[in-house]
Amino acid sequence: MPRRGPGKGRREQAPKRRSNRDGDDARSRGGAPRRIGTGRSRAEAPQRERGWTRLHDDDLDETVSYERLKVGRDRVESRAEADGYGAKIEGPAASGTVVEVQKGSFLTALDAPPELPPNSAPLPDFLRTWPRGTMKHYETGLANLVAAGDRVEVIVPPVHGNEEYEGLLTKVAPRRSTFRRLHPSGRSIQTLAANVDRVAIVASALEPPFRPGFVDRVLACAASCQLPAALVLNKIDLGVDAETEALLEVYRGLGVPIFRASALTGEGLEPLRAAWTEGRTVLCGHSGVGKSSLLVALRPGLAEQVRVGEVSGVTSKGTHTTTHARLYRSAEGEIIDTPGVREFTPADTDKQNLWAWFPEIASRRDGCAFADCTHTVEQGCAILAAVAAGEIHPRRHESYVRILKSLPE
């Protein structure tokens, strides 16, 4: 059969329309392909305003289920108004101190057991507590709502049968101090300990080797948190090499208290006991430096509660025996043992004022030729001149540069 052309019963096919989807050939139009959205861009986008609705239970009792959303509603215009609404939680109220934060929940040591119904099961020593739903849906910029050492108020709902008591967080008291760092993701701030009086940086002499870069980071973080810090060199029974001795003298010249101790032999423990008797101390250091061993040596009564690990013979790094920050309380003072972290970036500083937490830089920066000098490459920098003259230890300046590069813009 001969092929029919236009006008002989066959219509020409219309040209295909281009799609606006990701597969569209945007280059033919002179533009670039549409950017693919990422989780990071969504996280950085401002959070949308949340709408609030109050339901009147009394008005809904006689309403059929499919009509309940149409009646008895008031619009709540602000978060302050919304905080007063919601389902009432039954149970006695109590207050206490957070002793350990775990994923999604935390343990609370209550000041006193609340009044429970007759013949109720006793409360545990540490009450597992959960944040209420409304507290978990706000973008606060914090990685955790509570931290070890926080003072909190909770409600203890009733239980039935063999259920275990749990608490619901209702309020976190204002903190008098915080020890916090920038979360490794760089998107939030992680509070390691709350209401602390001092920071103790625990390092080891040889196993694992002394790492001044980590010490410098924690010193800068403690200074930015307005907390005094001290350096504890543990495992001195293994000996201290000449390079470490020289660095200890540098820290001593900056006014950092230095303690030498051995959790194994007991040497140097008495000065630590005297220094940590009053208030609350937070221990910070790499895994394997002996934080937990030192804690047990100072507080023998905690031996059953504290796990102690060993240093790997393959990597010369410690194993994680403390997985969550934990508050230990005794008549000899309170100590918060933190996990061995490898990344430690100060949260309460930025590229413009990092110099303030390095005393040897802060005392010389006025001599720089430029007011906005970064103290890294500039001509006429008084800090670089001091490093070249041996007045500032090169390892300290190296730590400053590394921290500066790790801080967000």
How would the blueprint of this fold be written?
Layout: H1 39-44, E1 52-55, H2 57-60, E2 73-76, H3 79-82, E3 93-102, E4 105-110, E5 127-131, E6 151-155, E7 167-172, E8 178-182, E9 189-194, E10 198-204, H4 212-224, E11 229-234, H5 242-253, E12 258-260, H6 269-275, E13 280-284, H7 291-298, E14 326-328, E15 334-337, E16 345-346, H8 359-362, H9 382-388, H10 394-406
Parallel strand pairs: 5-7, 10-11, 10-13, 11-12, 13-15
Antiparallel strand pairs: 1-2, 3-4, 3-6, 4-5, 6-7, 8-9, 8-16, 14-15
Question: How is this structure best described in words?
Answer:
The chain is α/β, with parallel strands linked by helices. It has three domains: 93-172, OB fold (Dihydrolipoamide Acetyltransferase, E2P); 178-345, 3-Layer(aba) Sandwich (Rossmann fold); 349-406, Probable gtpase engc, domain 3 (Ribonucleotide Reductase Protein R1, domain 1, Orthogonal Bundle). The chain contains ten helices and 16 strands. The strands form four sheets. The chain has a six-stranded mixed sheet, with helices on both faces. A five-stranded mixed β-barrel has the order 3-4-5-7-6. A three-stranded antiparallel sheet has the order 9-8-16, covered by helices on one side. Strand 3 and strand 4 form a beta hairpin. Helix 4 (212-224) packs across helix 10. The longest helix is centred in the middle third of the chain and has 13 residues, at 212-224. It is globular. The termini are far apart.
